[in-house]
Amino acid sequence: MSHAQESETNHHHLHATSKTIRALSIAFVVNLILSGAEIIGGLIAGSVALIADALHNTSDAFSILIAVIAFKIGQKKATTKYTYGFKRAEIIGGFVNLILLFVSGLYLILEGGVKLINPEPIEGGIIIWVSVLALVIDTVTARLSHHGAEHNANIRMVFLHNMADALGSVGVIISGFCALYFNLYWVDGLIALSIAAYMIFQSIRSFPGFVAILMNAAPESPDTAEIIQALQTLPGVKNAHHLHMWCLSEHEIALECHLETNHPKAAQAAETLLKNRFGIRHCTIQTENRLHCPSCDL
Question: Which pLDDT tens digit goes with each residue over 113-142?
């Protein structure tokens, strides 16, 4: 892809994401109002499943807010203090949302367990109508985020979470029908536990990825051994070592390494190789004319 084509593609992706962000800003407000309505409806109806769906929806509403804020912050240029820029704000925000999701899930396990063991009568009619409203809004929000999900992982998570919210609302509707027509009040607790289990599962599954980026771990791909091998095939390069690789953001990788070489253009050739073959644009290459490097022992 030429530089002009790449710039045009990036501009298109940025424009698409900007449109999605504006739509999600509205969706955040709507989802927050919906969460309040679900909590009030759950308290009136005595449904812990509806409250569970409300807490899950609240968590996802704030994940929308985090996506919007992270996108805005991520567009800021680097400063003399934050020399790498602000794109990692998205990771930090996602990690905070993950913790909130996990804590909410633990709370719902306790509440859902009590309702499952000691079921109490609930107002099925209220549950059904509020959940139908939630299902419509969750489906619309998922549709709004679907377009930007193709190019942005954070928005993709918003899309998947809202799809899960829609499925959760379906579960709560089933709970309402069971209570209204069959007096099966224990289903309410079961649905709450199911939503809680999903919230905890999602948070635990996402935890290692967030920690790896925040701890500057090397990404799973490309492989460091493969990169070293490729660098050592460059003309005049005898050895590549002291290689460190980490994620600046979810999609941007930074790398530094030392090359044992006397070739005057070895560093330039290495930068070109890393960019074209591995997609690594942020790199620092130090050339040496001897293998021993004092800084490598640190």
Answer: 888 888 888 888 888 888 888 888 878 877
- 261 neighbors 287 (Cβ within 8 angstroms): yes
Q: Are residues 146 and 258 in the same domain?
A: no
pTM of the model: 0.73
Task: Enter the tokens of residue 270.
Answer: 């290495």
Beta strand 282-288 with 253-261 is parallel
Give how far Cα 117 sits from Cα of 112, 113, 190, 197, 289, Å: 9, 6, 10, 17, 73
* Residue 219 domain flag: no
- For residue 132, the enclosing domain spans 3-214
